[in-house]
Amino acid sequence: MTSQSRQKKILDLLETNGEVSTTRLVTELSASDMTIRRDLNHMAAQGLILRTHGGAMKVDLLVHKQKFENKAAANLAAKDIICQLAAEQIREGDTIFMDCGSTVFRLCHFIRNKRIKVITNSLPVVVELSNTVVSLNIIGGEFDHDRQAVHGVMAKEHILRYRASIAFLGVDGVSAKGLFANTELEASITLAFAARARTTYLLCDASKIDREAYFKFADLSLIQNLITDRNGPHLASIRKKGINVITPEAK
Amino acid sequence: MTSQSRQKKILDLLETNGEVSTTRLVTELSASDMTIRRDLNHMAAQGLILRTHGGAMKVDLLVHKQKFENKAAANLAAKDIICQLAAEQIREGDTIFMDCGSTVFRLCHFIRNKRIKVITNSLPVVVELSNTVVSLNIIGGEFDHDRQAVHGVMAKEHILRYRASIAFLGVDGVSAKGLFANTELEASITLAFAARARTTYLLCDASKIDREAYFKFADLSLIQNLITDRNGPHLASIRKKGINVITPEAK
DNA sequence: ACATATTCGAACAAAATCGAACATTCTATT
DNA sequence: AATAGAATGTTCGATTTTGTTCGAATATGT
Q1: For chain B, which has fewer Cβ within 10 Å, the N-terminal or C-terminal residue?
Q2: Burial of B150 (0-12, 13-18, 19+ CB in 10 A)
Q3: Å from the B34 CA to the D13 C1'
Q4: A68-246 in CATH: which number?
């Protein structure tokens, strides 16, 4: 066995186990401890592995966690309830649009192991799903640092070339009068998603209900379903408009 | 037995076993060790196999499989030298293309505070620059988990709609014969970048020089400049082709 | 804190592999 | 058959890799 193939096997073992001991490598690769140690040190010098006492570890993922996740921590319980319900709407093989926004982002945790295709303009979503079985399609265009997402003309054009079974949308406010956003950029993307999806789900915690933000960009009829965390009378006017409202209680 | 049939058998053995030792080839092919070694070296020069001490390995075993994170950490010093030089080529207000690949990725550290626009298909680059003053344009399309970058038809179309002053390119191998890549996907993106940039810089550590990988996708004339970490006679043939070679020593 | 057990790396020794140079064999052509 | 040119084999010193020993450094258990 050559040193290269040994080192490759060490990498493989690390990939599956996360860490390995020198002694295990000695028996597994039938080489002397000194040889293993030399291999390990060599690879560590190249940054391929993380050397530890008695063995080695996998180097930590390069992609570090986003500040975004802090924002996402707000109302986590409510978002989890919503996303749990949202995830149940997805079937294997589906292609889904994922809007930007912290509520939709939380959906990532519930779909990591689904064999689906996700089309999104949200960087946090991409990062979160980049090492999963989920097949990803990234919407291209100008990157908006504030919103950590891609917006603009190119993005819209990109979306219009695809079709999806479901769109999971986020907004800044919703009432019987329609959907509200804080920027036109986000609004135009949301509209594009809705136009190209067979079914649309608006994910929205209670705080957004009946809130009328900066400007209205669409009628309520743009969406077919609203998923939110609490049932109650505040949803009556929306239900009356023919929207299918999904809540945990109503399940 | 001709050398061709021998080399074919070597490839077959590698295909099934992943690796093979010189001694085994000596008995298996009933040829002298020197002959085997000559075959091996010849094939390695063509990039057909990966030469090791005492034998050879399949190419994609080591090159293909290596995860991006690992590659990023390897040869960090060389990459830093290269990227330092690369960053000096950039002027405020420039629009630059950044290819995927670990060497180009390292350039992020040196441009965080420049007021420039970056157009890229590499997720690590996006993440790294997502909270800087750099203006980002993300190339959209199918996301390739292995390479942590966007490839495919959409990506190519996207690129062709923009123009940039500089393209920073990465390859898997370069020699006087041209540029080499391990996958067609990466190659087509690199070509698109080059086509739409006023000036092209190939960033390439010494290990990639004179390495002829899986397949050649462009002549050397595709690029105008090569930035590498060490000066030396191995660059002569490339210089002779009219490429401006930039090294720290020549500075 | 102390003792015990592991692990580490430097130094040296042994083995395998390497490539240059030269000798030999094979092959195609005259 | 003669001969040039290419491929192959052989020899041998240089290089690389691997193994061993042993004192120092580092973890672990009491």
Answers
A1: C
A2: buried
A3: 16
A4: 3.40.50.1360
Contacts of B209 (CB under 8 A, 6+ apart): B174, B175, B228, B234, B235, B238
Residue–nucleotide distance: B242 CA to D4 C1' (Å): 39
Q: Is the CB atom of residue B37 positioned under 7 angstroms from any atom of strand C?
A: yes
- Residue A68 CB: number of other CB atoms within 10 A? 22
Tens-place pLDDT, residues B211-225: 776 688 999 999 999
Token pair for A74: 């707000």
Q: What pLDDT, in 10s, does the model give residues B45-58?
A: 776 788 899 999 88
| The CATH fold of domain A3-58 | Arc Repressor Mutant, subunit A (1.10.10)
When pLDDT is averaged across residues A8-29 and rounded to a whole number, the result is 88
Which whole-number Å values give the CA distances from B172 to A205, B1, B186, B210, B213, in the listed order? 48, 33, 10, 10, 6
Q: Where are the domains of chain B?
A: 3-62, 68-246
Q: Is the distance between the Cβ of B35 and the closest atom of strand C smaller than 7 Å?
A: no
